[in-house]
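Q: Could you fold this chain for me?
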Amino acid sequence: MASKSSLQHFSFLVNRARYDVLAPPLMSLGEVLREKCGLRGLKHGCQQGGCGACSVQVDGQLVPACLLPVARANDKSIETIEGLAQGEKLHPIQEAFVSCYATQCGFCTAGMIMATKALLESNPSPTREEVLVALSGNVCRCTGYLPIVDAVLVAARKARSTEPAVGTSSPLRQAFVAAGSTTFSNQSGGRAEA
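A: Sure. Below is the predicted structure, expressed as structure tokens.
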């Protein structure tokens, strides 16, 4: 436990809300967000910056929150997975992950979605290869990555179109085809060939 003399005051915006915390300056932003701010969407994975489960955006840049000391986040704007949905309405990237069955156990999902958001902000029309590179800092042990890559491509396509949200019927199949996938998730979470 840190002594009271080693605690410092830090202030930052998280998901457009002001947070003021007392913490040791070298405590990771990930620990502060989870333990002091109550934002538990990001996960403690490897704690070495290699798995991406703790990915957040700090002043618009994707960072592993486990490696950033809270002192370096002072007076910054931070966005976490909790800041994407508008009330009960999921963000389009979240909708694509759900529709494409890209969530599985969910441990990596917040980091994958934040990495997807960063990618689509810088490149709204990524190729499959560009998605793989952008997600290379994120680890998933459940899905084999195909549903995740498909979800990113579907989200990108939906962001560029005026069609209604992706569902699990024929519009989903059309989105998968447009994204270059030849396999589709079925209702049971399995895979079916086109």
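A (continued): Residues 92-193 form a domain with the DNA polymerase; domain 1 fold (CATH 1.10.150.120).
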